[in-house]
């Protein structure tokens, strides 16, 4: 994300009181006034606006400013079609702002404070009822329902949610907007009311025994936000229990017989007024109690229904996370996400080719992949993202993936699923008998008249659980509801995994039970009903059969005769009839898997050998050359030594001859020795002989010494020759080995080039053109991909055979989980059974590898699961999620893969930004980094990941996670303009041309210039253009596969009415009302959708609506999303002259005909 540097805001941490005081003292200092003026641009409170006006006046007086045009705040706040007069401001005493420290507990505290002010709102009371049934609303004007003999339903018990007053949400938010000035042109919709408090009573109107009362955090937080220090909002968790206990005491009254009295009007009104007094909440914001909601529950369930959901979905998990940080045992993924731990490295994959090469190494490629339609392989950065996400060196952490529209995010996540399922299959294969992977805990769970043993799951089978979560229901279903579909796999993939059950769950053709859509209570109940209880395809029936108890369905045939037949899943999934039969199938499945796994391992190892050759061939060549030089030098040395040795031997022989000759001459001379008397009398002859002898003796002595020297030289040279020859032999062997290594590497590389072609990743690979490189597939050829596809199929067979052979413990654990999912099951795993909740969830993930939920349902679905009890979290559309939304899911998982795009639609925040920023500052938290909409789950993950990319913009840069760049959805000009405004031209266009029926009818993409008058932001002339376009489509009989979207709700609502009133849709669709609801909306509602065409209706046609147009074009997000919904053509309808001046709409003007 783009980070703001507060070094250029010296007064960032000053409170408004500090600034006001400093202004009074230093208003004559021009430098101070200039810096203060810059700071006040970032402040949005009423006091800041008043101070800004004073500063402007001073700047004009001292010559430091000239009058500028400032957008005036709206005089009224329009919410849900109602107008509310702004409330007068109440000055507060503000403490100095603390320093920004970004301490995790304070970050979580700030988020909790924001969530206190985030109530669950409704437009009409029936929206609080199950399935929104109006008949379930009990109007107090007709009397209290338990007093007038309310009728129940067969086999059902009745309870009531008594609504103890409601808050006028629109009026309350208007007060907040008045206090904290909201400069947004388009504010989020707020429904009419929020529940003040609710109480659960039985059919007699008596409070239920356990936890009967819930109080709204918003009701408590509203007066705090309007009149007190905002840091006090963190105190909700410390007052809620007192408030709820006190309210329950107000409602509980005993009669003369000692029994608790039913509620009556007096008790209800008294409790209502007591609560208002405790909350110090003005009656101007509330409506008194006037209705209850009926709840019908299966008579077999003992526990009362869950309370109405009044407060934020995230408060409980934020409190749990704070406790983890306080204890010092917060999960690593959460530490990274919140910034307490920094990523160990940061490598830019767009600039560091060595990092990217390492990321796509064959040794990092998973052994299995998803066999999608067409079996298309992942391209460069997709494969890098999968490899980095699955990197086994990090057992915990956060991997962020930047996934712009149409770049294959779902395809990437499917490969992650395939890899994790295959890893677990490998772990399963270590068990000779799968039943032994489960250990009896000794705990039994009561299931009606029966009970079930609860089993522990071997730790080697854990850590592979995959939880898919998002703020967007559509995003969740895009993954988890599509994974099981037959259309998600190649037609020849040969996959079948509890196919009949999967088809019942997703209500379309399916290949297998790879994923389940859970989340809210309705989804969980539907899942349990089909997955477990369904007699035809439910797993309870199947597992009973596999455990050895034959299953039959009895029906009444023609003539009243009873017919017995086998359940459909038992037949179609070929359930084993006994454990021994299951074990035989297990051995077959395990053997096939191991054989295919070994084959893939060999293929990937051979590719890694090619990579080794690529990386090491220059070094091997240098080593071979160096070895040759050393070998030749050694040979030369040996030759030189041998020549010297031979010369020394010759000299030695010459010396031997000289000694021999001298010896012989001396001996011959001695033979001529004179007689004794001649020697005695020293005759002349004797003296001559003696002199000659002395000379000959000296010659012999010299010759002998010379021979000794020669022998010494010979001996030395002989030793040196011996050593040199040994060294030469060693160097010759070394040179031979180096040459062989070089030749082998060169041969391997040559074979690799011939086999892989442009898939081979070498230095030349990274010199290819940007678009060519990023569309390439690294390393794996079709043979390797086919083997990986087949291994995934074998992994699914291993799962099926494992479940069959461990049917008994799996059935028991799943029965326990189904109870825990039920209304009566929330306390089923209390006490000694609490640790076993993790085991039964692990068992579900063994059977259904992927489970999905929205963030809003995480706590209610998984609340009791401890931190890091699940393996993997896949977050989709993370750019739309407020950062605190993901805390509960990350808390419970070891590793998070966070996918999204921060330049699509930002998180929707109902509160004014000035209020949310002030709350963050009150907690010492940097709002630019941790406060939505500037921050999202995606931006926090982008900062937490080790591998990233930096997009250089026009004024700064944006840092994201692993980037996906190859776009396959939109034709030009949609792609070109989006690439320019949001992705700095780094995206690669890879869409295949397709015919467009709409383009044939309406013509190519273009901007239809309309210069009309406006009512608010609606321009009737623009509406007429849209009608004309639709009439042309209707006349041509073209399929209306398009969206009509606008930046503004006023335009959306006006268009919807116009289209329905005109009747233009009558010939185009069977249900015009449904078509309008699904196909006409704001850009925000279109996120995650796509169609053949988009009609983008701009609105805001008046000259003085610069603020509205500036809001729409100030950032690339809105335009980026609007354009990338269209696959083939887009028609922009609006005033071109005015809109081309609105920020990024200038790029639209340049890129559109």
Automatic annotation (TrEMBL):
One GO MF term attached to the UniProt entry: ATP binding
Record protein name field: DNA2/NAM7 helicase-like C-terminal domain-containing protein
Entry keyword Nucleotide-binding: yes
Cross-referenced PANTHER family: DNA-BINDING PROTEIN SMUBP-2, DNA2/NAM7 HELICASE FAMILY MEMBER
Family membership: Belongs to the DNA2/NAM7 helicase family.
Keyword set, alphabetical order: ATP-binding, Helicase, Hydrolase, Nucleotide-binding
Segments forming domain DNA2/NAM7 helicase-like C-terminal: 1015-1137
